[in-house]
Amino acid sequence: MEKQNENMEQVVSEVEESSVETQNENSVNETSSDYEEKMLDAFVQKPDKLYWYKRAFAKYNFNGMDKIAWNWSWWAFFGGFWFLLYRKAYLPALALFGLSIIAGFIPIVGPLILAVLTGGYGTYFIYKKYKDLKTQIEATEKDEKRRIEAMLHLGGYNSWVVWLAIGITVLFVVLFLFAGIFAAAAAGSAGQGGF
């Protein structure tokens, strides 16, 4: 009987220890999950886009391994390198700008193919930017609050890119309109015996 009581106490003790370990693991997972969400929120800096980026970034991380995956973004499709520049992914933006120039030599099809590929894969470069920043911040800063503050400072977006893109687009439209007007005027005056 005594032996049975000892066995019972040992089982109860093991169950209690297991329960405490499970609670500790759950609180660590909740803290970790909360920290991850705060870091992503600090990077995105647009609460209305957080869920979209969270879902997109989940596609790029499979069981802790990074992988490239298709994730459609209309902003990346229409914005091209401007989208990457807006999201502070400078090197991919520069590479895409160069590819845009090269793709322009293949009328209609080249830019369209590049736009579709950018729409599907452009967000992956934002994910890589996030992962690189997060790794750098975590390597240099141990305090979670300061990590989040650093991500707020380094992450985010460049709002000036929107104005620059609009300004350059308007400039090109005006130039093409004037070029068309001058070409039509030149053709009209050439047909009347002018210059």
Structure commentary:
This protein has a domain at 42-158. Helix content is 79%, strand content 2%. The protein has helices spanning 2-44, 50-60, 74-79, 81-86, 90-103, 109-140, 144-154, 160-191, and strands at 61-62, 65-66. The radius of gyration is 28 Å and the shape is elongated. It starts with a helix and ends with a helix.
How do you describe this structure in short?
This protein has 195 residues and is mostly helical. The protein contains 8 helices and 2 strands, in the order H-H-E-E-H-H-H-H-H-H.
* Strand count: 2
- Biggest β-sheet: strands ordered side by side in the sheet: 1-2
For the terminal residues, how far apart are their CA atoms? 120 Å
Number of helices: 8
Order of helices and strands: HHEEHHHHHH
Which geometry do the CA atoms define?
elongated
Please summarize the sheet with the most strands. Answer: 2 strands, antiparallel
**How much of the residues is beta strand, in percent?**
under 5%
Overall mean confidence score, pLDDT: 86
Bin the helical content: over 70%
Overall structural class, as computed from helix and strand content, comes to mainly alpha
Contiguous low-pLDDT stretches (5 residues minimum) are 18-30
Task: Supply Rg.
Answer: 28 Å
